Amino acid sequence: MAKALGWGRGVTVITGQFLLGRRRAELSEDEKEALEKAVDAVVTLPARQLIVPRLKPVDTSMLLLEGLMCSYMDASDGERQLVGLHVPGDPLDLHSFPLKMIDHDLGTLTECRVAQFKHSTIERLDAEMPHLGRMLWFATLLDAAMHREWIFRLGRLSALGRVAHFFSETERRLRFVGLSDGERFDLPLQQADLASVCGITPVHTNRVLRELRERRILTFGRGVVQVGDLKLLNRIGEFEDGYLYPEKR
Amino acid sequence: MAKALGWGRGVTVITGQFLLGRRRAELSEDEKEALEKAVDAVVTLPARQLIVPRLKPVDTSMLLLEGLMCSYMDASDGERQLVGLHVPGDPLDLHSFPLKMIDHDLGTLTECRVAQFKHSTIERLDAEMPHLGRMLWFATLLDAAMHREWIFRLGRLSALGRVAHFFSETERRLRFVGLSDGERFDLPLQQADLASVCGITPVHTNRVLRELRERRILTFGRGVVQVGDLKLLNRIGEFEDGYLYPEKR
DNA sequence: CGACAACTTGAAGAACCTCAACCCTTGTGG
DNA sequence: CCACAAGGGTTGAGGTTCTTCAAGTTGTCG
User: Fold this and answer.
1) Helices (H) and strands (E) in chain B, counts
2) Rounded to whole angstroms, how far apart are CA atoms A135 and A191?
3) Which of B143, B114, B147, B119 is nearest to B133 (CA)?
4) Among residues B22, B25, B131, B180, which one has the fewest Cβ atoms lying within 10 Å of its Cβ?
5) Residues B152-187: tens digit of each pLDDT
6) Residue in B137, B149, B154 nearest the CB of A154
7) Each residue of A36-72: pLDDT tens digit?
8) What's the rounded Cα separation, in Å, for the pair B40 and A91?
9) d(Cα B132, Cα B34) in Å, to the nearest integer?
10) CA distances from B248 to A167, B66, B169 (A)
């Protein structure tokens, strides 16, 4: 556990990726320290498990440290729609703090490490440090911004555009936390997961991936993405990163 | 202006529809009064106007009092995707308080009346009344919950299902604030707007509306919705209102 | 090696789009 | 008071995209 490493100002062994690349710089040393100390536990979750079911009261929120998780909703015919992908550094169900439950299922895609925060602790933090509270609020709104972009993606883009947009967004998000160099990154998903994200069938997803491969834009296999032409990928997906609220440089 | 009406505890001439039907009951008299006093101005906006453009810093947030507004994003081919519809009682760009800007355009559909709140005032409120701050946070997350449902709608439902879901959701939301009785409600939109919501063409929207009409489920014309069979409408749209966080009864 | 899951490909069909024409209502000016 | 223009709504015909179904192929792990 991190506590064994000893504490000093700004030591963020657990929460160091939170808001990284976004507005982390606006967090004071006091705030980072308070956040780090607010961690109740760090636990490991098995792959492909439902972790937080919808519409059930919860009293804890989590921060993803390692692995991939997703938010999803199932249709009456059993088809699954992913409504969010979560990468390290992302709050997972922080919105359950004001909402008291979540309106979707939250599950793991791979084995994951997460940090847990009791709502009672967050409540104290929010009351005592209003600015930190606002940064937590900000973090939950990043999800909403991505949701809006996903609506746009599904409503206005072709299958090729949707897949390109998803890879563009995911590449950018992983780059925020140092998990992509813009050319290659791990993304341990299956084609069926991609289909669940993009609102298309697995079969058609396969054909879209073939086109991206043949046009030397991107290859995806065995959980690894190799980007051939990031500019073109972004253009096909009509991707611009403004909605991710990147840090000014 | 409301101030002319005189003040007493719980007088909410302007903000009385905020969170109505959701968790408004959790607001104390002090909180309601503080919110009402935080109103900086009430203004009228013309129909079909861009009110808040994307990616520009803002220092004010608004609450919709009367009329219809929408959030939208435009694709490179000029096609518009609505990502949110706003009805009376809804905060419009409250998320711009933590975000400092919005990542989408916000405009009017009809002439509207809105109440304006300066971010500096919200900041004071949030610091002095943490519980009220959390209720504001909650309100912004209702948008996120609707976004998730819209993703599901676009990703997993047919054109008929999407239109049915939109009408189901809108009917429910208007009922929260007393603007629908479950059988008939005003919805001053055009078929093209519906198309922009559902990610389909206006022509196909027309055909879907014909089917709903012929099956006696719903008629829509001249800005008026007549619901023939609400249960069936909800079933076709796979609509359940849990994600709208209705008040327990 | 065999079993299983994930990926791949082909063929046929459904859902939705595009384009074009027409209708209906409303408002305006002669 | 009528003619006409304009915008929104309606319909048909044909084309495209994506789905469905079915049959392999490849890779992995006991």
Assistant:
1) 8, 10
2) 35
3) B119
4) B25
5) 999 999 999 999 999 999 999 999 999 999 999 999
6) B154
7) 999 999 999 999 999 999 999 999 999 999 999 999 9
8) 34
9) 9
10) 41, 26, 18
